[in-house]
Every structure is written in structure tokens, then in C-alpha cells.
Amino acid sequence: MHPQLLPALLAAAVAAVAAVVLFVPYVARQHRRRGELGAGHVGLAGVALLYALALAAYVLVPFPQVSPGFCARHGTTPQWAPLRFLDDMVRSPASDGLAAVLRDPALTQILLNVALFVPFGMLVRHLGGRSVPAAALLGAGVSLFVESTQGTGIWFLYPCPYRLFDVDDLLANGSGALLGALLAPLLRLVPGQRVSDPDPSRARPVTAARRLLGAVCDLLLINLTGVLLGTVYRLGILAADGGLFAAQANPVESVPGHELIGFVEYWLPWVLLCVLAPLVGSGASPGQRAVRLTFRTRAGARPRRAARLLRSALGIGGFWLLFLVTGALEESAPALPTATGIVLVVSAVGIMLTRHGLSGALSGLRVTDNRAVRGPVAQPTEPVPA
């Protein structure tokens, strides 16, 4: 693999994992900050996440191996002379003619450093709501941190700096951030960013896409909760069995208490999110609360606990329970996985084709925006920019 491809591939892999972990908090925050979620806004947020991780990977990766004579081979000294690249271009033997000048390595390096921070300025101004001077100053500050990281050998983790601290890079990065801030209005052309009402506290119509998004958030939360609880439990039993370093000699499967790992990873998230969570408030699941949905009876009252549990059992809670039973009885009942898939498809179709979903219809509960309980539903208006 080419060394220059490693940071990009690493950033993409980490961004994919981070996107899954941060998806539900992002959805919840956007519904409270903007009142609703837009596909274009989600796309730009994903770009911002990937850009931030790519910038970090560019600074840190690859990590060279320290060996005798490391500093003699890789050590660098800071370059403090501003516009030193101009002198390098003048001294370059390939500076005759415009084409040769444009191909000059010194100029190419400066232009790449400018381009590297153009997205920073655009995203900070557009998504962060900063002014042009603020975006440019933030870009210069991040650039200073990047150059200091390189100039200190990743803050003295290495015996000497192996990448160059260059003041010209600071000027180029700051200029790129300024240019990006000036170009930020172009990001308004990305579709899917407008909101139907500028007031995020007013209720929105409950759409099928929004209810389906809540279900997706629930599935993510159940899986992530299982991963978190399982990891903590595994570390706990390993530590109790003699420390984490003893795990090489004693794998988890041989440690006392390993029999409960399946319960902690799969059954406990179901108990927490599908049994206990519906008993709180109106019975909405965590994913539904993220998209600001709640439940009411046909008379508009808060449902009783039995109705909340029934709705959960007919929705995500029932599906996850069927999934767990399928895993336990897969060998003796090979038809169960097919049944689980059918339930998932039917539930998704029910969300898309019915107003309150199959769980709401069968439990007698209606899905509504939780802001409608406190105020009127926002009427469709002329879209306004985010």
C-alpha cells in the first residue's frame, strides 16, 4: 500500500465507526436545534466528520518506528522564514516558463496547504455559523496546533521531530481557511438543508420517514448499548480474574462469569431499552424521543403503563425479543430467522403505509410530535434557509 493512501483509508474507516456511534446524538441534537432533520445537512455533517479525521490522520499517520539513529535519519529543524518558498522557487532550475513554475514542488506544496484548509473555512462558517474573520482565525489556530504537533515530535512522544515545522505552512493554511470562509455561501446550494419552520420549538407533522428514522435509531442504540455493556463486563471479569494482562493465559471463555456475557450483551439492552424505557414518560422509545415523537391515547391522554409495554412489545421490543429467541433456538427451529426477517419487513412497511405504525394501531396509541403536547403544530410555510 502506498504510504500516502494510509491516512485516507484510516480516516475513512474511523469515520464510518464514528458516524454509527454519533448518529443518534446527532439526530437528537438537530431535532432540538433546527426542529427537524435534512438529508443535505446530514451529508455536510458527514463530510465535516470525515474531513476532521482525515486532517488528524494526515498529521499523525504513518507512525515511524524508533530505532538507533532515528533522529540522525529523520530529525528536522523548524523553518521560521516567512515566504521562504519564493526563494526556493527562484533557486529551482525548473522555473523557466509558466508551466514549469506551476509544477515547481515549492509552489505545489504551498497550494496544497492552501487547499487543505479551504474545506475547514467553508464548514466552520456554514455549519458552525462563524463569521469570516472567526473562521480564518480558527483555521490559523488549528494550523498552529498541527505544526506544533509536527514540530514537537507529536508532543515529545518521539525523541525528536520527524516532520517539519514550517511557518509558510501556517500562512498557507490560514489563507486557505480565509478563502474557504469566503466561499462558504456556495454550501447553501446543497439541497436538503432548509427547514419548514424557523422556530425549532414548534411541532412538525409526523411523517413516515421520521418514524422510520426513530426505529433505525432504536436498533442502533440497542446494538451500541450491547457492545458497551459487553465490553465493560468483559474487562471487569478479566480484571477480577487477575488483571487484563492475564487474559493471554486465561481467555474470557475460561474466566468465571463468562456465562453471563450473552445476557449482558443481548438481553440486558432489551430489558433497559424495550422494557424499562417505555415505562418512563409517554412510552416512547429512546429512538423515538431522539426524533421528538411521543404517544397519546385516542382521547389525547398519556397512555397507561400496560399500553406502553404493549406498544413496545408490538414494535422494536417484540422484534428484538424475537431476534434473541431466534439466536437461542436457531438449531432446533431453523425457520425462526426467516420469521424474524418477515417481521422486520412487515414492521417497516407498516411504518411507511400506516399513520401510527402497526404497534400504534394494535395498541390503540397515536404517534404525535412531543412539542404538540405543549403547543400548536407548525403549519407548512415557505422554506427558509437553515
Automatic annotation (TrEMBL):
Name by which UniProt lists this protein: VanZ family protein
Which terms are listed as keywords in the entry? Membrane, Transmembrane, Transmembrane helix
Q: Which organism is this entry from?
A: Saccharopolyspora montiporae
Enumerate the InterPro entries for this protein: Teicoplanin_resist-assoc (IPR053150), VanZ-like (IPR006976)
Q: Which residues cross the membrane?
A: 6-27, 39-60, 106-124, 136-158, 170-191, 212-233, 267-288, 309-329
Q: Which positions carry the signal peptide feature in this UniProt record?
A: none
Organism domain of life: Bacteria
| Pfam families in the cross-refs | VanZ
Domain VanZ-like as annotated: residue spans: 49-187
